Amino acid sequence: MNIYKIALVAAPLLLAGCGAGSDNQENKVDGSLIINTDRNGSELSWEITNSRLEVVASGSGYESSTHYEVDFGFDPGGYRIDFKDEGLDGLCCSYGEGSIEFYVDGQLVLSDNGDFGEFTEQLSQTFVVGDYQNSYADELDGYYADADLLDGYLLKTALHKIIKQGHTDQGYGGAWDFYALGGSEDQYYEQDGSILDIYSEVPNGEDPYNYTIGDDQCGNYSGEGDCYNREHIMPQSWFDSAYPMRSDVHQLYATDGYVNNARGNLPYGEVDESTVDYTSANGSKRGLGHDELGYRQPVFEPIDEFKGDIARVFFYMATRYEDVINPEGTRDDWFEQSEEAYGVFQQNSSDQVYRSWVIELMMRWHEQDPVSQGEIDRNQKAFEFQGNRNPFIDHPEFVQQIWGKEGFESAKFYFN
Question: Per UniProt, which keywords does this protein have (predicted)?
């Protein structure tokens, strides 16, 4: 049997040191991959991705019946290693005795005798390198345990799996039931049990009107103050009114029907005051996005009190539905649903999901308007109602951990 030993500790990316872009070897943690190929060695390939899903090392094109040893130098962080066998028959048995062993800092991370079986998906293992503790690691409860120690887009995907599991679609009509159970009840401003409407609420003054839960839901309306409706924080036209997005109560807020209609399917943004063409009773407004926003098209701007609430819904939607936002190999992605969706979603991306101007805006709103008690209570009611949570309310630091990493693409997408 032939024997090869390969060191991968210096170069930046493919077949590279696993702290991409780092030349300092002093702080790296040793890793090694031992491969024994079968008689179809060329069918095997592998890659290692970091927490932003960047490929930092990979291998393919192996000789048959050959022993390989591959050495790494890892920066502390979260990673995943994936193996694929093109023949879907593994590395053993009918085609010889192959095997895989993967070590990090002397500890066995993954071992397989090569009997993958007839699989259609890659053999994968997530692992953490070094003394890597995120600020929230010690606080994670059982619900988020599978996201412990992850970072970047690996964290986002782990959260996606957590909040997808247990989510039971209660139907579009279920939103009325959710509101009746207290999912949109004002116990924080007037504290009178009326509908908490983000488009009419005046945090430090008297509301222009109040709605009684159940009695005042729309029907028809001719002006502001007539009735309350179900507002999709992310307009349903952006995902072709598909379920369960349409009925997800994490993004269905009770708001005045007339203002809801005035917003339509516009993105949220910050308005150029000289272009305002509509203002609601509490100061929410519609107009062109200002130049610094990076999107010079019509947008809708809520009052400051609720900007963080909206941002955390956007981050929730990007995470809960990352598997349907841009389905591979189809043309059903949200990017193509409307002109407004085109301006919001990043093409061919289920990781970053939004264009950079949206990410920058939502991160700023998230930081400027921290999680409120109202959000915390609403999140718990949503969990009890449909079986899943908004992780960015439970752990606001997840936003920075996923979208705020160094090297994030900051170029804005401008519309003329």
Answer: Hydrolase, Nuclease, Signal
Q: Is the pLDDT of residue 195 over 80?
A: yes
- The beta-strand segments (E) located in 228-284 are 228-232, 252-256, 278-279
Ramachandran angles phi, psi of 176, nearest 5°: -60, -40
What 3-state DSSP class applies to 413?
A: coil
Region of poorest pLDDT, from 9-13, 66-70, 166-170, 273-277: 9-13
Q: Classify 276 as helix, strand or coil.
A: coil
CA distances from 219 to 158, 161, 170, 343, 394 (A): 40, 37, 21, 31, 35
Interaxial angle between packed helices 307-320 and 152-164, expressed in degrees from 0 to 180 and rounded to the nearest 10 = 80
Average pLDDT over residues 164-177: 93
48: phi then psi, degrees, rounded to nearest 5: -115, 130
**Read out DSSP for 67-103?**
EEEEEEEEPSEEEEEEEEETTSS-SSGGG---EEEEE
> What pLDDT is recorded for position 22?
41
Closest CA to 100 of 68, 126, 58: 68
Domain ranges of the chain: 2-132, 174-403
Q: How far apart are CA 51 and CA 322, in angstroms?
A: 16
Task: Please check the confidence at residue 26 and state whether its pLDDT lies above 80.
Answer: no
* pTM for the structure as a whole: 0.70
Q: Could you tell me if 184 and 176 are in contact, meaning their C-beta atoms sit under 8 angstroms apart? A: no
The pLDDT of residue 406 is above 50: no
Q: How far is CA 229 from CA 69, 174, 222, 299, 330, in A?
A: 63, 13, 13, 20, 33
DSSP letters for 328-386:
TTSS--GGGS-HHHHHHBPTT-SSS-B-HHHHHHHHHHHHHSPPPHHHHHHHHHHHHHH
Read off the pLDDT band of 92 (50, 70, 90).
low
CA distance 207 to 195: 11
Question: φ and ψ at 275, to 5 degrees?
Answer: -115, 5
Chain-centroid distance of CA 225 in Å reads 35
